[in-house]
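On clarity, I found the account of how folds are encoded harder to follow than it need be. What matters is that the chain and its backbone geometry are given together, residue for residue. The format is easy to grasp once an entry is in front of the reader. For illustration, here is how one protein appears when written out as sequence plus structure tokens.
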Amino acid sequence: MSPPREHPERLEIVGAIKAVWHEPLAWGGGLLVFFRPWRDGITYPAFNTYFLWLIVGMAALWASRQLLRGTPLRHGTPILLFGGYLVVAALTGLETVQVDATYRSLLFWSGHFFLFVLCTNAFSNPAARRLVFASFIVSALCVSIWAILHFYYMLPFVREQLIADPNLLLAHFNTNQWTPELRHRLEVNRAYAPLLFPNALAAYLLLAVPTSLGLLCQVISELTRLRGVLNTKEAAARRLDSVRRYISAAVGLSMWFAAAAAAFFLYPFLLLVVRQDANWTAHPVSAGFFLGVVPLAIGAASLVLTRLHGARVFAYALSAIVLTLTALIGVVALLLTYSRGGIAALIGAVIVTTVLLRLSRVMALPRGAAVFASGLLGAIVFVLSQTSTAQQPQPGATPPPVSIASAQPVPPPQPQLRVEGIDLSAEDLANPASLKLRLTYWNVAWRAIRDNFWTGVGLGNFGTVYANYQYIGAGPTQAVHNDYLQSWAETGFFGFLLFTGFWVYFVIYGARAVLREPDRGRAWYFAGLYCAVLAFLAHSLVD
């Protein structure tokens, strides 16, 4: 008598769990990817060191495993270009104008190098890639939601608090004077949380939106392939077996628990910002619906879907929902940053990627892309409808009067901020003043390049020498607002060649991957990643 065969669905689930469990480096990479945007390096400089040590520890673990297994190094060309850039930066640092800044920059650039090596070698396993991508997508979704809440609720709340207690200005901004820059930053409605600048948030979302859209198209393609399998007699019989019953119950219970935990975490915050009330008992209907009905509905829907179609279909369906939300909400958050460079970069990258897809073997959009396109159009119309014709306050405007007592600093009078803020109008977005200001940064960078053509001024030192080359009319800054010019100004001509060569390699590599991939799902996967990198590189021309 032959032994009973293991249930294929159970084997598949156990195999997936084991594959993920045996990827400790991917767990570390997932944690890094998830938490990095929540603590930006300018506001929280200490976290740069924490993340650097995490990367170094992961790299040391990978290197030891690499030596034991004797596995060859993958993607040697870009690693060589990146490593060459670090060598040039270290050599030109011998002539740096400030050793401390170059030393610190070299440390963090070394962390970027080790992280790149990990991404191209340690995360080659499909299970590892799924774990890292899942962490990135979930973090991007949370960041996008937080950015929207920041725009509509937190900015007015901060203004209210500053008006009610002006001492907060001194406590949190280390000043008791309303400088034009500070007032402009607090009063103009632009999303930037959890990062420090709207353009930084836009750069992050440029990576998240196309990536999630490409993964969504791949998931839809996989679901289309499974459609013919779902109606077979074997699939119909499996709906009634005991193993499927236990699996669906476990999935439903897990989703209910996750939804309930998220609801209990979010509800107090939503209650505070929406109803301005932290008392749960004062709103029993909304509490019962949000904390009881919604988690139960999510758990029941997960149970039914898994029971009818299996765990794999449920995983794909859940991925499709999360990816759709990330793409749609990410676009809304990107528009709320009012980053003209970011929006233009995304549009240009989408156009280039669309042309590549038309030239490749993937000619038609998968079903579901039209739904996303409709939602995207609706999101754009909604956000643009919120903009008013109010004009942006000019940075050079006269600040309100400030009174400072001799014994103790007294903050300025209260009515200097508008609680509702000032929306940027179409006229503001069309104003070329910001571009003209960047042109002054670039002109100063060229002055520094002419005097330090071969060696640069030292990695991380453009802000240090800026005043030496600044001319009348050039705005103050610590960065060139063009990563390519900054690499030349700081590391010299050869550093510039290696830096741009690294990215040119990926522009060519990604285009070839999109054009040559015969599988539709993987082609969309490559297209999403390529569009994300291309948009980020375009945005780096102006930020």
The two ends are 71 Å apart (CA to CA).
